[in-house]
Amino acid sequence: MKGTEWYQADDIAEAYDDKRFSEGGQFIDRREKTAVLNALGPVEDKRLLEVACGTGRFSVMLAQEGADIIGLDISEAMLSQGREKAQATGVADTLEFMVGDAARLPFPDDHFDAVFAMRFFHLADRPVTFLRELKRVSKGQVFFDTFNLESTRLIYNWLLPMGSRLYSRRDVESLLADAGLELVDEQHDFVLPYGFYRELPKNVAEPFRKLDRALGETDVGDAVASVSYWNTTAADGDND
């Protein structure tokens, strides 16, 4: 895993949300949460697993929607932030945070109704191994996102402290085939990369986001989008 020391530092965890999801970053937060909710559908009483849950943005949201959820991450500092959020929002009873390795998930086969991982595969040095583990513990659905090779992210990718693995569509198709997953649905967004929005005040970022959404509704926008959301399920017969 790239940059694990940076990711697990206490000061990084404490500032993580404010740095990425305040001001213009609010548009990123809103879009990502919408993508997760749209993919997972009604989650009340569902048993869910979020791998690489970080500070619990998605886990807390889904617990508030009625899910019984576990958030797993390699960083205890990140999980501490998540536990504080769970306590503050009153969902600690239905949300558990635990330290764990995505390559060896501590759960039996078919344990969860759905499993998802956001902002994880750009850091994964063994993506097929991780994807197989997500599939193993899910009854069917696996949802994840990727940062894309044919996108504006190439412009600044090398500057990022943790690095970033970028995927072509062919890469994703190969991953799914090797993991025994079938694509159910896909969405593509953010012609302008995440880093652009995070650097802008919200009122300045808003017109750029409107333009970005308009471009994203075209074939060209999909082709050069910097982020893709992949909703998948076990291939026929794989989880029988």
TrEMBL record:
CDD domains: AdoMet_MTases. The keyword Hydrolase does not apply. Coiled coil: none annotated. Transmembrane segments: none annotated. Residues 49-139 form the Methyltransferase type domain. Gene3D superfamilies: Vaccinia Virus protein VP39. InterPro entries: Methyltransf_11, SAM-dependent_MTases_sf. The keyword Transferase applies. Keywords: Methyltransferase, Transferase. It comes from the Archaea. This is Methyltransferase domain-containing protein. It comes from Halonotius terrestris. The lineage of its organism: Archaea, Methanobacteriati, Methanobacteriota, Stenosarchaea group, Halobacteria.
